[in-house]
């Protein structure tokens, strides 16, 4: 098939269950790794901008390597045993904000003898002892957050909440998830607006204007050798990796020509220069207690609980965003619970290894999959192996710090805009002209931007007398996603409104396109193939064991397994919030997906 440009209907070039050729899989994995590396560098730059030079026990390359190792293990667990969606695990802003609250506040005794959090300022904050203690407390908070994520997954709370999130909960929550990153995006883009703008313009050009252009694909087999069999929309599938590489190359050329940049400040260069590459070993397998054990203080306990709650809310939003963006079957309850459990294990691993960031489903990587329509689970698993490999080599991990700051900002601009747009698209399912819905959307989004802004400027207003409680309240109230999710969920389920007004009579209530009675042969069991447990694990968990706690929330029940394969919900599954899938399936979506999947199967 020859290359060219055509107006073909938008669909995934490689669906979740398909395995691309190894060459494409490695390129897709490199694209995910580049976005993940940007998140890791952004996290460490904002949390630890200027470590003391005298601190020789910790260095940037080791911290990055440990975080990469934990993220790689968590990604492998997520795609194989967790939700089984192609979700890359990375530190999120829901971990960063509480960690910054903890690291910037030290215990201070007030006049009445009670301890209140006080802003850390002066030379003492940069002292080696204070620096190490702060990192140990953040690691302890990450351990606590992992336990909270595990509890929410094992208890089934996460899956219960996910099934009761309608359009009026998802629309403002996903929109705020995207909008909450605008400060960080502007902060890093200001390093060089020209480089950041170049990346954004190329991403728009490749993904939108040239997205339908198809290029020949060269494959190699032992029987045929090298052959050109089909064509792929390469510019769209690599609409993040190609602009990133182009911007990186342009930045390197202009830097070699000694073009002056408006840098963020000397502190931003501490990341690659904290310890020279000669001090970073080529191979160093991280293990618990290698440096120091995490500090499980009362301060770390309060912040860790906040980390676990807010990151779980972000992950639930990512679980609901990913199937819709990739046109996959709706996420069942047990898959959501397993996903939170795997994220909890990843955060526990990161904390005991001395890392300062937990693991959560990466919104930018999910938005990258939506933008490129390349969502193969196999590619994400390859990226997980690459993360583990880089995590065992601090010197190779240090190469990630050479990515220009403006490129990080451009990646945030390109990816988080997809989250904003997806959130806005949910409004079409509800009656947005309703006064009830207008108030819920406006109130939740405005409060989610107002309260964190006010508390960031005046954190002293939160002073209950218990430092643990103060830091917990300050951490959750400065996370916009928590406020939006909590307020929208509360108002949506307490303010009276009809099902049509709330958008619960559409296919969005439980989005299962293409799974029904008339689905083609082989397509009806797609949901069980996507979210079901691996065959080896199913053999180890007979139905009798799945009924016991905690497996009852992690394994599909007998009725639910039958429903996944037949495309209908089990009896009694409908709630007051969401309707059964059989009552809301839309014929047009079903026929479109049926036709596209069968065409693709025939082509392959």
Automatic annotation (TrEMBL):
Topology in the lipid bilayer: Multi-pass membrane protein
Entry keywords, A to Z: Membrane, Transmembrane, Transmembrane helix
Subcellular location: Membrane
Similarity comment text for this entry: Belongs to the nucleobase:cation symporter-2 (NCS2) (TC 2.A.40) family.
Name by which UniProt lists this protein: Solute carrier family 23 member 3
Pfam families, per database record: Xan_ur_permease
Organism name: Platysternon megacephalum
Transmembrane portions of the chain: 22-48, 141-162, 185-206, 234-254, 403-426, 438-455, 461-491
PANTHER family linked to this entry: XANTHINE-URACIL / VITAMIN C PERMEASE FAMILY MEMBER
MF (Gene Ontology): transmembrane transporter activity
GO cellular component terms given for this protein: membrane
